[in-house]
Structure formats: C-alpha cells, structure tokens
Design a protein that fits this description.
The protein has 422 residues and is mostly helical. It has helices at residues 2-47, 50-54, 93-102, 117-120, 125-137, 160-167, 181-191, 197-200, 243-251, 262-270, 277-288, 310-323, 325-328, 354-362, 387-399, 410-417; strands at residues 67-70, 73-76, 149-150, 218-220, 225-227, 254-255, 258-259. Helix content is 42%, strand content 5%. A hairpin with a 2-residue loop joins strand 1 and strand 2. It starts with a helix and ends in a 5-residue tail after the last helix.
C-alpha cells in the first residue's frame, strides 16, 4: 500500500511542476502587458497635461489641491493618487471612464468645467483605461482635497445642469472618413486630451464657449495671457506656416516663426516635448488645416503710416534702440532661433496687446525641452521702465516695420503690472 502511495506521489510531482511552470509563464506574460498599459497611460496622461492642475509645484505628483482661480472663485484640483480614502484608490476603471466621458463623479455629482471633461469625453475607452492604470501605479498620497471656494450662486452645483445643456456634448471622437489617418490622429489629440480649445476659444461670462467659435482665440481668464486664434492668419493662424515650424513650436518651444511663453510654455514643458514625433506632426497637420475665419492680411510692408502713434512711436523707437535692438536687431529681424523676429510677426500685432506688454514687463524664458535644453530668455523691464515708457516701446514694436497692431496706452500697461506671475 505504501509503495502505491509513493508511486502516485511521484507521478504527481511532474504534474505539479508543469502546473507551476504554466502559472509562472502566464504571470510572466501578464507582467509585461500590465507594464505596457501603464507606460501607455503615462504617455497619455502627459498628453493631457494632467500634472498641470493636479500637482502643486514641489509636491508629490497628482496629490491635488492646486488652486485654480476663476472669475467665480477658486477651485482646487482633487487628489488623483490611488489612496483609497482621499484619492481614487476605491474607483474602478468604469468609474474613471464615466467621469472622463460624462463629467460626473462616481458619487454622481457634477464636475465643474475647469476639469476639461468637455474635451476628455472624446477620449476612447482603451485610452481611458490606460490612464487609469497609470494613475493606479503612482505612489498613493493620503491628502484630503480642499473644498472649492466659490461665491454664491456658483457654489450651487445644480446650476451646472444649465451650463452642460448649453456647452457640453457627450461622446467619443468619431473619425472623419474623408480625412487621412494622420489628420484624424491629430484631431483626436487636439480636440481630446490636448483640450486646446479650452484656451484658444473665446470664453463668455458664463465660463462657456461655443463650437462655432472654436480656436478663434481669447483672453485666458485670471491668467492675463491671450491665447491667439488658430484659425485667423491675422493672429497665429497656421495656414501659411511650414509644417516643421509648427512641430518645432509645439515640441521644442521655439521655431523660425515664434516662441512659446506663458501658459503655452507650461504645456510644452509638461506635455508636448514628451510626445512622439509622429503625434506632434499629426497635431500640426490638423492645426494647419483649421479653416481661416479671416483672410490673410495683405503684405505688411505696404501698411500705411499710423498718424495716431506720433510721440509714442518716436519715444518707443529710442527705447527699443537702447534696450531691445541688441537681441532683436535694429530692424526687428531677430536672430533665429533664440531671438524671435518682431518685424512681420503676427503675434505682435494681434487684436490684444496683452502678450507683448507682459513680455516687456515680466520677461521670461521659453521652456527647457529635450530639443532645446538651454533656452535663451528675455529680461524683465518692469523695474527699469515706467508705464508710459513700456507703452511707447510696445506701441513702436506693434506699428514698426509694417506691423499692423494698435497703439498701447499707459493704462493698459498699469493694469498688467500687478498681474500674477507664477
């Protein structure tokens, strides 16, 4: 009897070893697959620039509580680490997708549209699941999210039903079968995770924007920067840009046609520099195809002299020669790629003078990126020049060399002198 038991036991050993080997092989296969979806999610989270809102500079990643000032009060981004009590550790992949897709929390309350769910609704389920897998992989942080500080009646979430009726259309991105695969990839990234229209579309008093005015530019509330129209060749419309110049601006931060500063510099630093060449090119293809809402401006060299510039133009020319010409050139031609040209520069003559005023006041650097790790910056002149002097030099730059911008007043400069610089 004992001999029989021993034979059965010995026969079972190879079977056990085979089962163990099969289990190990299955789990070994699962590990790379799981790692792959996490890495994919990391890439997509960077494409969506999630860190910009959900991480206080210097704090642990995605631990939340970064303040987002709005005309209605201050919102605070939530903790999205996998902590079960204060983060999203108790969420399922379904919960996360439904939040991205519908703008509702797992508990059913409506999200304020500072969370760009109107764009994220276009994200596919597969990409949503990958982002969720990545967020589940970051270290959990036990940190309760701060309550929003909104004025009455904006602290009443039920009012969001009206906002959603006017400005939110739920649904994943649907490819345009009449366009190329590359164009559709670019449209998906720009309209969805990139949520580019959130800044580059005019925002009304209700904090909403219409699809009809998408990408037509507007002042970014509370940030005091102007996001130019991407549809108008009179502003930053990209119709006459070389494709490589668009790619360079997005991914590198500088190009032969311009340089990114302000909020766009943060987008390039946090997000666009890490995207693949193919994805950035696809975005450029889509952006270049946006229809112009205004025709191209006539040759700036033929612009008539502006009679209303007068003394400001003369004073501004003197200041420019003393302070600016060493980098940007006596005739505003710049020194590519580090010192952008000011002559015939669409961003200088935009309808809003906010950006050139802020650059003269506060200076700044384009982002340090993988393709441009040591960017050249511009010094601030707020301490050296008074409001009238800054108004004069900006007026000169906006009207010299055929540029068609309107003159700037000292009052406009003074209003921006106290603007927050983060």
């Amino acid at each position: 009897m004992n001999a029989v038991i021993r034979r059965i036991a010995l026969a079972a050993v190879p079977l056990a070893l085979l089962a163990a080997a099969a289990w190990a092989q299955t789990n070994a296969a699962k590990a790379p697959a799981q790692q792959s979806i996490v890495e994919r999610g990391r890439y997509l989270a960077q494409a969506g620039d999630c860190i910009a809102c959900h991480t206080v500079p210097g704090a642990k990643i995605f631990s939340g509580n970064r303040a987002m000032p709005t005309p209605f009060g201050t919102l605070y981004a939530p903790n999205i680490t996998p902590d079960r009590d204060t983060g999203i550790g108790s969420w399922s992949a379904d919960d996360f997708y439904n939040m991205m897709h519908t703008g509702r929390s797992p508990k059913g309350y409506l999200l304020y549209p500072a969370m760009p769910f109107a764009s994220y609704t276009k994200v596919t389920r597969a990409d949503s699941d990958a982002i969720f897998a990545y967020l589940r992989s970051v270290p959990p942080v036990r940190l309760a999210s701060r309550e929003h500080d909104l004025r009455f009646p904006y602290n009443n979430r039920s009012l969001l039903i009206g906002w959603r009726t006017l400005y939110f259309k739920e649904g994943e991105y649907q490819p345009d079968r009449g366009k190329s695969v590359e164009w559709n990839r670019g449209a998906y990234l720009v309209q969805g995770l990139g949520h580019c229209a959130m800044c580059h579309t005019p925002i009304n008093a209700l904090g909403g924007s219409s699809q009809e005015k998408a990408f037509q530019g507007g002042l970014i509330p509370m940030q005091n920067w102007y996001a130019p129209s991407l549809t108008s060749n009179r502003e930053a419309g990209l119709g006459d840009w070389a494709l490589q110049d668009i790619v360079d601006l997005l991914q590198k931060g500088v190009s032969n046609r311009g340089t990114v500063y302000g909020p766009m510099a943060e987008v390039t630093f946090n997000s666009l520099q890490y995207m693949t060449d193919d994805d950035v090119r696809a975005m450029a293809v889509y952006l270049k195809s946006l229809p112009a809402d205004q025709g191209p401006a006539s040759d700036p060299a033929g612009a008539p002299a502006r009679a209303d510039v007068g003394q400001a133009f003369t004073e501004g020319r003197r200041i420019y020669a003393a302070r600016c010409a060493s980098c940007h050139g006596a005739e505003g031609r710049g020194k590519l790629p580090h010192y952008p040209p000011l002559a015939r520069n669409q961003s200088i003559g935009m309808s809003s003078a906010v950006n050139p005023i802020r650059m003269v006041l506060n200076g700044g650097y384009p982002p340090g990126t993988k393709r441009n790790p040591m960017p050249y910056g511009m010094p601030p002149f707020a301490q050296d020049l008074n409001d009238n002097e800054i108004a004069s030099v900006v007026t000169f730059i906006r009207t010299a060399w055929g540029n068609r911008g309107a003159p700037v007043t000292a009052r406009e400069v003074n209003q921006l002198r106290s603007a927050t610089v983060e």
